[in-house]
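Note to self: the last two entries modelled the partners one at a time, which told us nothing about the interface. This time every component goes in together.
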Amino acid sequence: MSDHSSNPIVGHVMPLKTLVMIWGALLVLTIVTVSATHLDLPRIAIWVALGIATVKATLVALYFMHLRYERPFHAIIFVMAVIFVLLFVGIALTDTQAYQPDLIPGYAPGMGAR
Amino acid sequence: MAVTEAEVRERREGYESSRLGMWIFLATEILLFGGLFCAYAVYRSNHPEIFVYAHRFLSKTLGGINTIVLICSSFTMAWAVRAAQLGERRRLVALLAITIFCGLCFLGIKGIEYQQKWRHGLLWGERYHPVEHEKNGAAGTPAAIQMPPVSSDPNRSFLPLAAEGPRGLAPESSKPAPGGADAEPVPKNVQTFFGIYFAMTGLHAVHVIAGMILIGVMLVRAIRREFSPTDFTPVDNVGLYWHLVDVIWIYLFPFLYLIR
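The predicted structure of the combined assembly is written out below.
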């Protein structure tokens, strides 16, 4: 049961040591993201939270989901899905920001005020 | 049970094609949640005050515990995949059982949170009837949302009538929020936040339940000795699904619970 055991199908089996290290890193980053809310960073708090979450998600994808050792095409599929979500959210945000002056506070975005 | 070289090659092909299909499925799952993240981003950028006000009704402690529970379950699942690849059957069974247990803990804590929201009337849309539970009483929000006619607003009398918002959204009025000047004003339409909260965590909880059922199937099959180092693809794919559920929660937790 050494950590260098291999598998006839996938070849590379994740060493237990790596898994434990990633687990620890994820727990530490969870504590970091909770304690970061106690700092007073009103402008960039959302970006700090988003950055830490992305680091955590990347760790999970690369090691728990073996993305680092898989065919690159699988990583491309995964990253493309994320890019399309970012495009979707980004374009929707720029659109809704363009209607900000017409916005009635509390209404659904873009409702009324014409 | 010896497996010939040709069989190994065949199984490797099967493994890789099923893996490709699984990744494409996960991409569609990301896009499914992407719609909800988009709704979140649009509402939050338009009405940040609602999110800053409403997020304090969520328990950071329970949310944090749930994050840790889910990360632990993801770790045991990754270890279970390793055990399956190495043919360690007893370890695989134990780790799958622990993963299901973690999923149950997650749902239990989620249930406690939902129950608290329900008791305090912090629900979506027209069902939003917050119970007055502030200590000074004055800062409580009105028990029901009144919908005065739009034309009663003097600022808008000369404008053509606007399209009405969906039912359950209060029109903006120039009146100060109840509670007086000293109390922190309660923003309008806080129920928007809870609509997004329940939609996102609810869809995520559905995924947790689906993942637990799949892991349960894997557990039964592992007990029946159906997996071997050359035949473990289902465990690996269910593991991928479970990790994706974890990744989505990694984003939901700071977005909903840790707003500043």
